[in-house]
Design a protein that fits this description.
Layout (H helix, E strand, L loop, with lengths): L1 E5 L2 E7 L3 H14 L5 E2 L2 E2 L2 E2 L2 E2 L9 H15 L3 E2 L15 E6 L5 E4 L7 E8 L7 E4 L6 E3 L5 E5 L4 E4 L8 E10 L8
Antiparallel strand pairs: 1-2, 2-13, 3-6, 4-5, 7-15, 8-15, 9-14, 10-13, 10-15, 11-12, 11-14
């Protein structure tokens, strides 16, 4: 585990224990349910976020629980995992998603501010040159982090970030999610 300071905030980089077992299982769950995915929006010809309900991808619980515990232990942030869409939200998507990046695709700069206290991404499939995650902060050079299967990055949801172009020959598959305040505020219930 490594803590990286950037833009006055902390990013935790860690390998999720047991990734050799849960990553292939989660990839199989995703790929066997690819036809059931719902998508939020297209950018530059690809679906930006792809969603499946937790009962189709139950293995997501492993990295989500690890991220929750890491946030509490290392950042002193207590958080809750939600597997269903927020009850007061107009969105019908759960607060976790998959990004399937074919060669030539990238993700623009964005953040995850919407009511969450921590954001995370973990890599399920990536080759060399499949596109670094990068963070931006005014007055600083971009922070580049190479993807690695089983690696998890945990960060403040307000941090601006994106993904460089996938210049490999294979698909980059990542799993991202938000964690919410614990105890949950009344509007969450």
């Amino acid at each position: 585990m490594e803590i990286i300071s950037f833009g006055g905030k902390k990013i935790i980089q860690s390998i999720v224990p047991g990734w050799e077992c849960w990553v292939p299982r989660l990839l199989d769950e995703i790929l066997s349910n690819r036809g059931n995915m719902k998508h939020s929006h297209k950018i530059m010809g690809r679906w930006e976020n792809s969603y499946l309900p937790v009962d189709r991808v139950p293995t997501v619980r492993k990295p989500m629980r690890y991220a929750r515990d890491l946030g509490k232990d290392e950042l002193k942030i207590s958080s809750a995992i939600l597997f269903e869409p927020l009850p007061f939200s107009k969105k019908t998507y759960p607060p976790f998603w998959f990004n399937l990046g074919l060669p030539g695709t990238q993700t623009g700069v964005h953040d995850h501010v919407s009511l969450s206290v921590l954001s995370a991404v973990t890599y399920l499939s990536c080759e060399e040159n499949s596109g670094n995650l990068f963070f931006v902060s005014e007055g600083e050079d971009d922070l580049e982090i190479s993807p690695e299967v089983g690696k998890l990055l945990l960060f403040d949801p307000s941090m601006k970030h994106g993904v460089r172009e996938n210049c490999s020959g294979g698909e980059r598959v990542s799993f991202a999610f938000n964690l919410f305040p614990f105890p949950l505020p009344a509007e969450f219930l």
